[in-house]
Specification:
single chain; alpha/beta; Oxidized Rhodanese, domain 1; 28% helix; globular
Amino acid sequence: MVGSATVQDLTVQDVWERLKTDPSSVLIDVRTRAEWTFVGLPDLSPLGKRVVTVEWQTFPENSVDPTFTQQLKSALSGSAADTGTSMYFICRSGGRSRMAAEAMASLGYQNCHNVADGFEGPLDAERHRGRVGGWKSAGLPWAQG
């Protein structure tokens, strides 16, 4: 049955190591264009890679883009990615990326993973992100959009 693959949550450190050791692996950022521009993007240039960016939800409507899976397939078509490629989905804090990974897993992509805590992580005691979890907090490479 298509979609029987499960989506595993991984820490940002685990994802970085897997991206480093698996040349065919892909990081997919499903946040909005506004987030990429104003908050920043993971920088995979030290690994000789680039982040694939496809919005899961459109801004400002915040509705799921019904063409997400088609857009992602199209974005991956120029690479060697296939249904067996390890794909790591990231968003702000891990919610949207999990849904996006599950959507691709339901289409038969067998190695979809969610980046737990995402790019900015959960809110801290002062209600700020980027301090207690996620890509930025871990000190992994990133760049302003």
